[in-house]
Amino acid sequence: MTTSVTGPETALSAAVPAPARSAPGIDTDRVASLIAQLLVELGEDPTRDGLIGTPGRVAAWWKEFLSPDDAATATCFTESQLSGQLVIVGGMSVWSLCEHHMLPINLQVTAGYVPDGEVVGLSKFGRIAQHYTGRLQVQERFTRQFAEHLAGVIGREDVAVAVRGVHLCMSMRGVRMETARTTTAHTGGRFRSDPVLNQQFLAAAQWYAA
Fold it and tell me: Fewer CB near the last or first residue (10 Å), C or N of the chain?
């Protein structure tokens, strides 16, 4: 189950199918040339002081941003004494780009799961987040992708993910609502069927977002 809440107004979005993930060889020289052309069309002079080298720097950033590390194989550690414990990892702040306007999105991610005989290495959570934000993205899809990946790591649907986003496409253009925040949540397995477990997770997610 995925729910989305958008401030200051509430909006429910239909699930968006994930596009095929490709890793094209990015021609940075070609991208730099296009950036220089864009500067000219915007009334700038790419050869003036301050802009010399800017097209190359922008092209290098695009190549780096669109080439994130793979979400490497998870390291799991045996913990046979665990029983009914809830593990929550929060405070993960990652950047992505809105695929509708190509403007930045800052996402604050909180994820939880119920271990069963082993625990997931903590750095894995950050790697999952970085892997799925290094592309043109929408928050709703990212939330689902993170949850599905984590469920695959633990081999069960007992996962929950909450994401709080600041979208510059809403803050600096259009309605220009600088304080607007968008919250998405995905719950599965026990988090969906056990209201107490669900509330424990949501309370922790709200604490991280405060």
Answer: C
Q: Give the list of residues 6+ apart from residue 193 with CB closer than 8 angstroms, or none.
A: none
| Phi, psi dihedrals of residue 85, rounded to the nearest 5° | -80, 145
Q: Please, how many CA atoms are within 13 Å of residue 128, restricted to the half-sphere of its CB?
A: 27
Which tokens in the block code for residue 77?
């550690």
Q: How far apart are CA 151 and CA 185, in angstroms?
A: 15
Contacts of 187 (CB under 8 A, 6+ apart): 1, 159, 160, 198, 201
Residue 140's H or E segment, with its range, is: helix 139-154
CB atoms within 10 A of CB 197: 20
Q: What is the pLDDT of residues 13-30, one digit of tens each?
A: 333 334 444 446 889 999
Task: Annotate 20-40 with b (16+ C-beta within 10 A) or e (fewer).
Answer: eeeeeebebeebbeebbeebe
Tell me which residues are annotated as active site: 98-101, 139, 167, 169
Which single residue is written with the structure tokens 């903590």? 122
pLDDT band at 12 (very low <50, low <70, confident <90, very high): very low
